[in-house]
Amino acid sequence: MRALLAFLVLFAAGALTSRASASAAAPAPLRVVSQSVGTDELLLALAEPAQIAALSHLARDPQFSAVAEEAAAFPRISSGDAETILRHRPTLVLFTDFSRAELVAQVRRSGVRIWTFDRYGSLAEAHAALRSLAAELGGEAPARAEALIAAGEARVAALQARLAERRRVPALAPTTYGVIAGRGTTFDDLCIHAGADNLASSLGRLEGFARLPTEAMLAWPVEVFVVGGESGEFQHVTPYPQMMARRSIRVVRLAPWMLGCVSHRRVDAYEALARELHPEAFAGETE
């Protein structure tokens, strides 16, 4: 009997020690801070709510964010300095390749893990970012990423089938900044998928955001100006009023965030612009 009691005491002590060791070895709960709108959109699509420590300061702004309503349920960083980010006690911080280098270095020196969204020129690259971030998050995130990717690819394939026989509509994205979106921009990607011809790329041979070739643009056969929201200020910037005086140019207005979207949510923009440019392809359907 004494031997049995001694065994039970030793077993219980061993069990307690094992549980304590397991508890000590268990990783700290993941707490993620996102520093940009693009990473906000990826994070909200993949993470468990409890994993989200804070989103970017623009996360709730529908001018920039595709997830403004969803983001309202989470804290956001009020400014883009390391102290503010670290105040949320993150174990992982999401940056982009255009985040300030000194900020990234400060957060890294604090011992916090960093993930960088640095390739986003195409939907394929946005999908690769989903997979990469999902691997960092673990749990159900990889499965969510694959489901999102499959759904996005199916939507793009369906859209391509609708637009396959349709003429690409000559288009530009005017701004008030003295530059225009050429090849390799999110607007160019949008045009490729929505049945538009970005003349800054095809005629202007412009790369990225380039200075306006004002005189050349007057001869471009543009049919549509694509802008975000209700902004009409571009109509006072040369050469846009002169172009509109020479030919009839329709202004298509999308949700402002759609023109600069770098995440998987760009598929929403593809569909929205395609509906504006090719309504006959969607005849009989409701959005």
Write the layout of secondary structure elements.
Layout: H1 2-25, E1 32-34, H2 37-46, E2 52-54, H3 68-71, H4 82-86, E3 92-96, H5 101-109, E4 113-117, H6 123-137, H7 141-163, E5 169-172, E6 179-181, H8 186-194, E7 196-198, H9 199-202, E8 209-211, H10 214-217, E9 224-228, H11 240-246, E10 250-254, H12 266-277
Parallel strand pairs: 1-2, 1-3, 3-4, 5-7, 5-9, 9-10
Antiparallel strand pairs: 6-8
Helix pairs in contact: 6-7, 7-12, 8-12
Number of domains: 2
What structural class do the secondary elements suggest? alpha/beta
Uncertain segments: 1-25
CATH architecture of the largest domain: 3-Layer(aba) Sandwich
Total count of strands: 10
Helix coverage percent: 40-55%
**CATH class identity of the largest domain:** Alpha Beta
* Spatial strand arrangement across the major sheet: 2-1-3-4
- Briefly note the CATH topology name of the largest domain: Rossmann fold
What Rg do the Cα atoms give? 25 Å
Order of SSEs, N→C? HEHEHHEHEHHEEHEHEHEHEH
The biggest sheet amounts to:
4 strands, parallel
Number of helices: 12
Strand content: 5-15%
How far the N terminus sits from the C terminus, by CA atoms, comes to 77 Å
**Roughly what is the average pLDDT, rounded to an integer?**
90
Shape: globular
Mind telling me the CATH superfamily name of the largest domain?
Nitrogenase molybdenum iron protein domain
